[in-house]
């Protein structure tokens, strides 16, 4: 759909996948006015296709829109767009265990205008693509601690899901790969080395003996992950203590050394939950605190995937039926 300043969203249509035609002066190419979301849709055994907490994605898109000076999109239109796209040919959505359809809603500033100001013409689009099977227990992933690069700062766009944040994280990702790590984790050197998040996932820490989960709080420099929020809810439902707070590198080192820290894992829509292997940094390492998947992370993951795929009851009404 399109948006014109002072008007409303209009011209919604489903078209065959193919190149977009945009003016070379379109604002998105020059000033990065772009935001997006990532959602998975699963086919359940009743044949219907469901997404998980799509209204949360709609809400987060609007949070990002407000930060990037883009127009908000009514939540109903967001969900309707997903429904229309999937219903055109729902055979796209695989039937196999754990396989999903990945939906990528995004909004771009299309106005051709070279002055620096918010664009008056904007497009909202959704693309769909089959997603791989993330079932089974993922292998622990070695993580690189970036000390040279930050992906966000106070007052910046860290909480928004905008392309610029990912561009800012890419050199960290390259550095990670150069050190044999699959993922990079960022910290905030201005807040006592507070741990923030990975390039595309949140992080949480399990203190098994205390039945406690600690995760960095939402200060505005990290993305408010929907997987993070859901896992915290499931943890509370089980009576685990959940602390959203500052968690520093020093505390991580101490808790790993003392044995209090029993699991570290990343979480996000794509992999749901993935255990940490070794944390590698320029001049030190923190060895994995668990062998393979930690017990609590694994069981929270199984419950969440169970809800998403319809194998486990959905106690919080998190599923939205698309078709
Ligand atoms: N942080 C970042 C930077 C991300 O890109 C993602 C993936 N959207 C997440 C966290 C996890 O968010 P979610 O659980 O909503 O996928």
Automatic annotation (TrEMBL):
Gene3D superfamilies: 3.30.470.10, D-amino Acid Aminotransferase, subunit A, domain 2
Domain of life from the UniProt record: Bacteria
Enzyme Commission identifier(s): 2.6.1.42
One Pfam family per UniProt: Aminotran_4
Catalytic reaction equation(s): L-leucine + 2-oxoglutarate = 4-methyl-2-oxopentanoate + L-glutamate; L-valine + 2-oxoglutarate = 3-methyl-2-oxobutanoate + L-glutamate; L-isoleucine + 2-oxoglutarate = (S)-3-methyl-2-oxopentanoate + L-glutamate
GO terms for biological process, alphabetical: isoleucine biosynthetic process; L-leucine biosynthetic process; L-valine biosynthetic process
Pathway note: Amino-acid biosynthesis; L-isoleucine biosynthesis; L-isoleucine from 2-oxobutanoate: step 4/4; Amino-acid biosynthesis; L-valine biosynthesis; L-valine from pyruvate: step 4/4; Amino-acid biosynthesis; L-leucine biosynthesis; L-leucine from 3-methyl-2-oxobutanoate: step 4/4
PROSITE patterns: AA_TRANSFER_CLASS_4
Similarity annotation: Belongs to the class-IV pyridoxal-phosphate-dependent aminotransferase family.
Name this protein carries in UniProt: Branched-chain-amino-acid aminotransferase
């Amino acid at each position: 759909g399109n948006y014109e300043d002072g008007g409303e969203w209009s011209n919604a249509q489903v078209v065959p996948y193919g190149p977009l035609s945009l003016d070379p002066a379109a604002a998105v190419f020059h000033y990065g006015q772009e935001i997006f979301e990532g959602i998975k849709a699963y086919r359940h055994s009743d044949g219907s296709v469901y997404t998980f907490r799509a209204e949360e994605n709609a809400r987060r898109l609007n949070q990002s829109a407000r930060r990037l000076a883009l127009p908000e999109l009514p939540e109903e239109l967001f969900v309707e767009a997903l429904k229309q796209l999937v219903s055109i040919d729902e055979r796209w959505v695989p039937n196999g265990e754990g396989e999903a359809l990945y939906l990528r809603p995004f909004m771009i500033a299309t106005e051709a205008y070279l002055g620096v100001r918010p664009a008056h013409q904007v497009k909202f689009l959704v693309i769909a693509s089959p997603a791989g099977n993330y079932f089974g227990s993922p292998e622990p992933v070695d993580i690189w601690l970036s000390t040279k690069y930050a992906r966000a700062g106070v007052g910046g766009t860290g909480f928004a899901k905008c392309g610029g944040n990912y561009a800012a994280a890419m050199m960290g990702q390259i550095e990670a790969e150069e050190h044999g790590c699959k993922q990079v984790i960022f910290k905030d050197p201005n807040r006592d080395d507070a741990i923030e998040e990975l390039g595309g996932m949140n992080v949480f820490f399990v203190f098994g003996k205390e039945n406690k989960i600690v995760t960095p709080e939402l200060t505005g420099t990290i993305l408010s992950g929907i997987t993070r929020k859901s896992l915290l809810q499931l943890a509370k439902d089980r009576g685990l203590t959940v602390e959203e707070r500052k968690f520093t590198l020093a505390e991580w080192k101490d808790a790993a050394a003392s044995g209090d820290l029993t699991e570290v894992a990343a979480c996000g829509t794509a992999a749901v939950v993935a255990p940490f292997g070794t944390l590698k940094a320029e001049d030190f390492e923190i060895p994995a605190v668990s062998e393979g998947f930690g017990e609590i992370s694994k069981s929270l993951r199984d419950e969440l995937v169970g809800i998403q795929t319809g194998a486990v009851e959905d106690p919080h009404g998190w599923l939205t039926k698309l078709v």
